[in-house]
C-alpha cells in the first residue's frame, strides 16, 4: 500500500442482535416445547402400537425431536424454523404437530404474503406425506375438513396476535412521540419565557446606558462630578447587562429543566419596586411611586415578578419615548382582589424624538406574560393626553 492512501474498503457482516426473552416469553416457549414433545411422544407410541417398521419409527422420532429443538429458534428465525419442520412432516408424523406451531409463529412474526407461501408449503407437505408414506391412511372427508379448520384457526390466531402487537406498538410509538413533542414544547416555552425575562432586563439596562451616553454627548462641558456620575451609571448598567446576557446564554446552551417553573435569573419581586424607582431617579427620570400593597413579600413570586416587569418596561418606554417627563407608578391590591399596576406619563409631542431604538415587542411580551398568569393588560392614550399602561394580575385568596 502506498503512503498517503486509504486502506481498501472491506464490508463487514453485521450479526443481528439477539432479543432477550421476557419471563412471559420464556413461559410461552417452555409450554410450546412441552406440547411439541408431548405430540412427538404420542406419535411415536401410535407408531409402536401400529407395529411400524423400526427404521420408520426411528426416522419419525429423530425428525420429530429435531422439530422440538427448533422451537427455541422460532422467535429469531420464524421462516427458518418453519421450512425444515414442514419438510420433516413429509416423512414424520411427529413433526406435523410442530409444523402447526411453525405456522402460528410465521403468522405472528411475518407479513401476509410470507404466511401464504408457508401455508402453501404445509398443504403440499400434507399431500406429499400420503404419497411418501404408504402407512399413513388417506384422510376421510370429515378428517380433512377438521384439518382445514385447525389450520385456519392456527393462522387466524397468529394473525390476530400479530395485529394486536402492531396496535400496541403503534400506541407506544404515539405515546413516545407525544412525550417528545410535550418536552419540545415545554423547552420552547421555557426559552421564550427566558427571552421575555432578558428582554425586560436588557432593555432596562441598555436604556440607562443610552440615556447617559446621550447626555454626555450633548453636554461635553458638564461638571466633572456629573460626568463621573453618568460614567458610573453607564459602567454599572453595562456590567449588569453583560452578567444577564452571560447567564441567559449559559441557560440556552444547557439542557433546560422544563419542570422547573422558576426563572433562572433574575428573580425580582414586588418588594424590589422602590429600588427600581430609585435606580430610574438616579438615571434622571422623575418617578412618583405609590404602592398600596400592605405586605409585598406575601405576594406570590410569579405575580410579584410579573408586576415588577410591567413597571420596569413602563419606565423603560417612558425613557425612550418621553424623556424628561414625570412618570406616575401606582400599585395596589390584595389577596383575593389581585394586583393592579398603572403607569402614566405625558404623551410626547410629534416634534420630540429620542435616540433610543425600540423593537416594539416589549408591550406584546407583557401582554403575553399577563395572559399566562390569568390576568389582562391594557395600554393606550387617555383623554388627558397621557400614555397609560394598566395591568391586572390575579392573587388567589
Oligomer: single chain
The count of strands amounts to: 5
Number of helices, counting only DSSP H or I runs of 4 residues or more: 10
How far apart are the first and last residues' alpha carbons, in Å? Answer: 82 Å
CATH fold naming of the domain at 269-397: Heat Shock Protein 90
Q: Given the helix and strand composition, which structural class is it?
A: alpha+beta
- The amount of beta strand, in percent, is 5-15%
Q: What can you tell me about this protein's structure?
A:
By secondary structure, the chain is of the alpha+beta class. The protein contains ten helices and five strands, in the order ααααααααβαββαββ. Among the domains are: 23-138, no CATH class; 269-397, Histidine kinase-like ATPase, C-terminal domain (Heat Shock Protein 90), CATH 3.30.565. It has a five-stranded mixed beta sheet, with helices on one face. Strand 1 (286-292), helix 9 (301-321) and strand 2 (326-334) form a beta-alpha-beta unit. The longest helix has 78 residues, at 141-218.
Task: Summarize the structure in short.
The chain has 397 residues and is of the alpha+beta class. Helices cover 61% and strands 10% of the residues.
Write the layout of secondary structure elements.
Layout: H1 23-49, H2 54-69, H3 78-91, H4 94-109, H5 112-132, H6 141-218, H7 224-253, H8 273-282, E1 286-292, H9 301-321, E2 326-334, E3 338-346, H10 362-372, E4 376-381, E5 386-393
Parallel strand pairs: 1-2
Antiparallel strand pairs: 2-3, 3-5, 4-5
GO molecular function: kinase activity
Catalytic activity: ATP + protein L-histidine = ADP + protein N-phospho-L-histidine
Transmembrane segments: 26-45, 52-73, 79-105, 112-132, 138-161
